[in-house]
Amino acid sequence: MSRKPSAISDDLEDRDPNNLGAHLQVSWSDVIGEPISIRSPECAWRLSNHCFQISKNVCYIFLSVLCAPITACCLGCSFACIAFEHIWCVNPCLRIWKISCAAIKIFIASCTQAFIAPICDAMGRFWSGIKVRTQTQMYKEETDERDVLLA
What we know:
The chain is mainly alpha-helical. The chain has helices spanning 7-13, 28-31, 42-128, 136-144. The longest helix has 87 residues, at 42-128. The model has no long low-confidence stretch (mean pLDDT 85). It holds the Pfam family Caveolin.
């Protein structure tokens, strides 16, 4: 029988499933590049590459072992405080605000229907009675009257 891998082992294999650290992938060729016109000896190039890789990995491991648990604890507490704040403070306050605003919304809608809508209706009827007419005949007469001497 094959056993299903546990969630913990999945997390150890794929530590960045959302690709959050894509911008942090740094290799030797991303940092150092020699043009064709000037080159160091091959042994110096390879030794420098190995020193870069080893120092980067050792330093990261050292900092991870030293700082990661403390940082994880601080981040866990920070996110727990934010969750607590939203669950017990922000969401209830927003709910109170929505309930209060619903009553104000009904009051304003009633006032609008009682006072503003009749005024707007009357003004609309008043302004709809205005007719605008254009007279194109007058324009044609002006264009037909040319100076006889210039023609």
